From TrEMBL:
Broad enzyme group: hydrolase
Keyword DNA repair on entry: no
NCBIfam families: prc
CDD domains per record: cpPDZ_CPP-like (cd06782), Peptidase_S41_CPP (cd07560)
Domain PDZ: 88-156
Protein name: Carboxyl-terminal processing protease
SMART domains linked to this entry: PDZ (SM00228), TSPc (SM00245)
Signal peptide: 1-20
Source organism (scientific name): Aquamicrobium terrae
Residues spanning the membrane: none
Family the UniProt entry places it in: Belongs to the peptidase S41A family.
UniProt keywords, alphabetically: Hydrolase, Protease, Serine protease, Signal
Single Gene Ontology MF annotation: serine-type endopeptidase activity
Amino acid sequence: MMRKLSLLFAGALMGASAMSLVYGVPGTAANAAGAETYKQLAVFGDIFERVRAQYVTPPDDKSLVENAINGMLTSLDPHSSFMNAEAAQDMRVQTKGEFGGLGIEVTMENDLVKVITPIDDTPAAKAGVLAGDYIAKIDGEEVRGLTLNDAVQKMRGPVSTPITLTILREGADKPIEIKVVRDIIKVKAVKFRTEDDIGYIKITSFTEKTYDDLEAAITSIKKDIPKDKLKGYVLDLRLNPGGLLDQAVSVSDAFLDRGEIVSTRGRDPKDVTRFDAKAGDSIDGKPLVVLINGGSASASEIVAGALQDLRRATVVGSQSFGKGSVQTIIPLGESGALRLTTALYYTPSGKSIQGKGIAPDIKVDQPLPPELQGRDLTRGESDLKGHIKGAEEGETGSGSVAYVPPEAKDDLQLTYALELLRGQKTDPAFPPNPDKAVLNQ
């Protein structure tokens, strides 16, 4: 039984979180701390020294400080945290969309790392790693006992450095040792294909390369399907945990001619930033259906919310995650970086989706297969301990089942979208009327 449903790229995206990232330093300075605050800081210093001097075993000073800082930040909300130098570098790797690694999608199964697929034209594929292989050892070290993140970390490394994988393969009578030399792996944030007369585009995350990959996908689809036969597009944002805010804005703008895409509002009422669409629709006004579920969070909710409010697309699926906060990454030199929630974002209608999520125009639930029934795969911001209470959260909260079938034939949400675009299903929500856009007045 798979321990994790989400896929990880070996040597790359580790623990992708549901957040939008904005780089830089907040523009407003905090008020000077009062005397009582400094008194409490003195208490902290006293406790720190007593722990160092009297704890039963000598503690690590660096770990004590990092854990104390994270304790302070996690008491604010689930998305604020301190990243040491290593974690900060991991975050930069995730958002950049390329890394030094092997080029395999993996998950954890039966205490071993299972290869879902080797990515084409990568070191792993060239070395002979196959889908379905189980990695039992990494450079001679047993995988059993490691977490998936630990194993991924060990497979990462500088370009041109070798790594030896001990593989268990069905049909092989003994373990196979494969030497792989790490190289630059470029992660495709956008996957696409043609469904006869429809273009299907899936955005897996919002990295620095997402918008460029999207435009390349649209160009390719236009070449494959003649304009007079192209019925429209499906934009799949399911299981997309988010990423960079500027990329979410650019992706939304690709389908829009005008209108406000999103606004962010900080603690100061004057601290409002608006992002507007520019003229030009990359898909030439063709019909668009957006798919969401409980795994659609943050940046993906910005896109879905903008296209829904501006009546550019019909949103199909189930309630999204409901993460409506923006995190600013504040560099701290060699010490790492601070990830701090500095604003909430609002859709064009002026609504915050924090703790509420995006409700689809057409609700289509995806049933779980027999082997997953009885498991709780519902995901939502409102279930996170210490989350910021949304202004419109309500009693029902946010989120829904975060599951997409591996086979398209079993995907009821995708099937519904395709039938909608082909006219095989009808609904008042499709096609949407841009003249009835819900705008913030």
